Task: structure prediction
Amino acid sequence: MNLSKGYLLALVTVFAYLSWQLVVPFFQYVLLALLLAFVLFPLQERLEGRISPSIAAFSLVFLAIVGFILPFVLVAAVVVEDAAAIVQQLDADAARLDELERTIGEQTGMDIDLAGTVADSTQQIGTVALEQATTWFSAVTHALIGFGVALFLLYYLLKDGSELLAWIRDITPLPGDVQDELYDELDEVLWAVLAGHVLIAIVQGVIAGLGLVAVGIPNAAFWTVVMVILALVPLVGAPLVWGPAAVYLFLTGQPVLAVALTVYSAIVVGVADDYLRPIVVDRYAEISPAVIIVGVLGGIYAFGIMGLFFGPVVLGALIAILEVVDDNYDRLEREAGTT
Result:
């Protein structure tokens, strides 16, 4: 390597590192923009045949807000409300202290001021909450800025997506047919994860959640979201929620509802997993459940909430790239030797 090439590579390394430092604070939102752009780009290409790229991109950003981001925020608000209701219920149960104090006094002969202790603890919690107010405000501000960054990035990914893809093809040192094979494999992996696993998990969770609502399980929205997340993990799924819910109904003197919830969940939710998943997955690359499990769990640690989607994609993409390498390595080596 001569001095000029070394200098250029050093510049690339330095500015790549500095650029990465700029992206890191909003990494989750960049991943969100990339995910939405991947889903919406086929629509962008169709719309560009009728309207300008700018108007098409703006329309799809509005669609993303109405169809993806706003429902997510609303669901998150309902889940937080349900979680707060669960905590308040626990607090209400814990607040019934008079009878407990009297019982302890009768059994031990000791006077215990549980109410005073709880009051002191509440005051301490309030003090901590007040001290954390600045942190919460900072987190909310960061989230608002992050969503703004995601929307702007989504707009330009859609508007200039064709030019970006052409630029990537130009700077990639691979023959055109190898790039076509590679990008086709990656496209199949992405759709397999999104349609064959994420979409099915959402359908499963919602169907099971409707069952919880029908039998009167409290805070059903919260438990529905939990079931959607659990359904992303093969061999785990929604039964970890609707099973205990059926037991709860049985123990609270509602055996008919318990049996109804069990039958509904086992049959209807089971059908969604056993029949709908193969129909969807057969259209794309079939990904091993082991890849999904490691990808989902590892992705959460590596990428946060977006790791639920990108973790399996990363592992699936590695497998796809290795297959492309295996198919073309000898040929590329021969071509390199002739130049």
The first helix runs from residue 3 to 23.
